[in-house]
Each structure stands twice: as structure tokens, then as C-alpha cells.
Amino acid sequence: MKPILLLLGSIVGAQSQTCKEVTTVENFDINAYASAKWYIQQQAVTAYQSESRNYCVSAEYTVKDRPSPVFGYTVGVHNRDGDANGNMRDGNICAVSDPNTPSKLKVAPCFLPQSLAGPYWVVAYDETSGYALVSGGQPTEVGENGGCRTGAGVNNSGLWIFTRSQQRDEGLIDEVRNIAEDAGFDLSVLNDVDQSNCDEQGFTSYLRN
Questions:
Q1: How far is it, in rounded angstroms, from Cα 121 to Cα 67?
Q2: What is the rounded distance in angstroms from the CA atom of residue 74 to the CA atom of residue 53?
Q3: Which SS3 state, helix, strand or coil, does residue 174 take?
Q4: 5: confidence class by pLDDT, cuts 50, 70, 90
């Protein structure tokens, strides 16, 4: 009977845990954020990005002169990633900021309305240090060590550590990981991205080595 009670207690305890409410960057400047390319150093698996494509991952943002026709997106996004064999892919999507909280954006393929866009929250950002922590919205699933995670689907999914420098800086990555942990995230979802053997355009040189 005792083992059963312990099991029930652990289940109830897990169910009673709540996820810390995530706050995003105050006084967020999308123009500064979009001023240079970002290189992803760690990221969680999502439905559109498996761990096998954690090579040479980058993102570039362009603030539009005017909202896009029909759906009113204000930011263009160019994403790139690759696999271990040097097979690269890239794609363009669109984003728009919440007018009340500019660091809470929504992203989607440009042909979809904003109502179908998924959250892209800038949880931490320091242009001088050259990092950003981005979450696919509020984490709702209790994970390891009391931290919480988003889902792993298309919308409401993902966690990313960005740096301005493509060269890996373990000290800076640890700094951002500490920020994420303090914010209540489950860090076990983060996997390393290999940014070596990539040229400036983000295309791998693995096949040439």
C-alpha cells in the first residue's frame, strides 16, 4: 500500500505544480533587434525543426516599410538550417508585434492570417552582450527540475538561445541558460546547434572538408 500512496502523492504533486508566468523584454526595439543576423546556439525540437537539422541555424529579420497587404505583417523573417551532410534549406515567414507588448510577436507563413500565427516571445535581449532568449509563448507543461516547457508542435512551441556571433561562446550561452532557468524554463529541452564549418551566408562547408 505504501508504494501506491507514494506514487499517488508524486502524481498529485506534479499536477499541483504550476508554471511561472513568463515576462518579456520591456522597451523592446524591433529595429535594433533586426539590425543584424542572429545565430542559434541552442534550441528545442519542434514539429518543423528536428534535432537532425541543428547545423548552421540562423535567422534574419527585416522591418517592413509598411504592413504587408491583406494580413498586416510588419516584419520579414529569413530562416536557415542544415543537416550533418551539408544539406541546407531556407525559408521566409512573417511576423508582427503585439501593439501593447512589442516583445511579444506572432510568426507564421506570410500567406496565413495573423489569427493562425504562433507566439514568438523575446524573453531576454541584450544588444551589447549579443544575446537573445526566445520562447514560443508561455510554457505550460511541467518538465524537469520544476521547470516548464512549451509544446513541440507548430504553434506554442520552441525555445531558442540566439547570439550575434556565430562563434560559440560557452560563457555567454551559460549566462542565457541561467536567465532561462530563472524565468522558469525546463532547460532539458535545449539541444546544441553546430555553428562550425559554416560560411558567412550560413551554408555549410562540410562537404568541402
A1: 20
A2: 28
A3: helix
A4: very low
DSSP 112-137: S-GGG-EEEEEEEEETTTTEEEEESS
| Cα–Cα dist 38/58, whole Å | 6
Give 101's pLDDT tier (boundaries 50, 70, 90).
very high
pTM across the whole model: 0.87
Q: How far apart, in whole angstroms, are the C-alpha atoms of residue 92 and residue 163?
A: 20
Tell me which amino acid residue 83 is: D
For 172, the grid coordinates are 555567454
CA distance linking residue 34 with residue 20, whole number of Å: 28
Sign of the dihedral through C-alpha 72, 108, 141, 170 = negative
Q: HSE (CB half, 13 Å, CA atoms) of 32?
A: 13
Q: Give the three-class secondary structure for 23.
A: coil
Helix (H) or strand (E) holding 15: helix 2-16
Q: Tens digit of pLDDT for each residue in 49-97?
A: 899 999 999 999 999 999 999 999 999 999 999 999 999 999 999 999 9
Cell of 82: 542544415
